[in-house]
UniProtKB/TrEMBL annotation:
Keywords: Cytoplasm, Heme biosynthesis, Iron, Lyase, Metal-binding, Porphyrin biosynthesis. Belongs to the ferrochelatase family. Fe(2+) binds at H183, E264. InterPro entries: Ferrochelatase, Ferrochelatase_C, Ferrochelatase_N. This is Coproporphyrin III ferrochelatase. It catalyses: Fe-coproporphyrin III + 2 H(+) = coproporphyrin III + Fe(2+). It comes from Chengkuizengella axinellae. Fe-coproporphyrin III binds at Y13, R30, R46, Y47, Y126.
Length: 311
């Protein structure tokens, strides 16, 4: 008996694949408005700073999608799962992924974003685009909205905190300030009663409890350069404040809002934050990214399967 194929639209932000794609990518983020020359150069410089323009997010995302497909087919043998990528700001776009599923004869699908926390401005916008295209093409598709408290996700992140704390030789773990971080969003989400900030705090608390740490706080990072205010305080500001006001010497950054190594990790934390910490005389480390950790792959697979037959 032939198994029914289920399409899994794995969505993420996207990144250029090469240096010459940066301007088109940035223009798409800016809704078709080309960046100013200095803005474009700043982004190019950031990519150049990461091992001479290495583009880790695209490769990491490709590997994650491959591993999610393998994990799904291992966990549930009643269907044949086929994963498709849908990127927000690069090819293949979300709409391309939905179209490809229909072209391949998929009639049943689930969409999931490589981001555990829901915001109408992030995960919600991915879902909206995918649903609109699916409606247009007559495809039945269900969506995973969040999975920020999945036990395997918390286990994987807690283990990373525990391992990274070992890098502070001779320091009691509760003398290390753990900063949980995620990508900032415009402040207007607060007026919308958006669940994003509260879900991030829930994840932070779950990890802290699992790792038995009490010395932690939350900080935002990687805010956009726009006229509207973004959620804060920013991690760079937090580093300065905790050093000046509390004389914190040791800091561990755990970027719970990101699931793979990319610009916001390899530049914003590993270069920018580290430089500020050094200037302040602080010892700063960060937890390893999830990337293709089997527990994260299992988390995504399990929430996809759980959403298969929802009405």
């Amino acid at each position: 008996m032939t198994k029914q194929k289920v399409g899994v639209l794995v969505m993420s932000y996207g990144t250029p694949e090469s240096m010459d794609q940066i301007e088109a990518y940035y223009t798409h983020i800016r809704r078709g408005k080309p960046p100013e020359p200095e803005q474009l150069q700043d982004l190019i410089d950031r990519y150049e700073a990461i091992v001479g323009g290495f583009f880790p997010l695209r490769k990491n995302t490709d590997r994650q999608v491959e591993e999610i497909e393998k994990t799904l087919n291992h966990q549930d043998s009643s269907y044949e799962f086929v994963c498709y990528q849908g990127l927000k700001h690069a090819h293949p776009y979300i709409e391309n992924g939905v179209t490809k599923m229909v072209e391949d004869g998929i009639t049943k699908a689930v969409g999931v974003v490589l981001a555990p926390h829901y915001s109408i401005m992030s995960v919600g916008s991915y879902i909206k685009r995918a649903q609109e295209k699916a409606n247009e093409l007559g495809l039945e598709i269900h969506f995973v909205k969040n999975y920020h408290l999945h036990s395997k996700l918390i286990d994987a992140l807690s283990e990373r905190v525990d391992n990274a704390l070992q890098k502070f030789d001779g320091v009691n773990k509760n003398e290390v300030r753990v900063l949980f971080t995620a990508h900032s969003l415009p402040e207007k989400i607060l007026e919308m009663k958006d669940p994003y900030p509260s879900q991030l705090l829930e994840t932070s608390k779950a990890i802290a409890e699992k790792s038995d740490i009490t010395n932690w706080q939350f900080a935002w990072q990687s805010a956009g350069q726009t006229a509207m205010p973004w959620l804060g305080p920013d991690i760079l500001e937090v580093l300065k404040n905790i050093k000046e006001e509390e004389n914190v010497q040791n800091v561990l950054v755990c970027p719970i809002g990101f699931v793979s190594d990319h610009l916001e990790i390899l530049y914003d934390i590993d270069i920018e934050c580290l430089q500020v910490a050094r200037e302040l005389g602080m010892h700063l480390e960060r937890t390893k990214s999830l990337n293709t950790d089997h527990r994260y792959m299992e988390t995504v697979a399990e929430v996809v399967i759980a959403n298969l037959d929802k009405d």
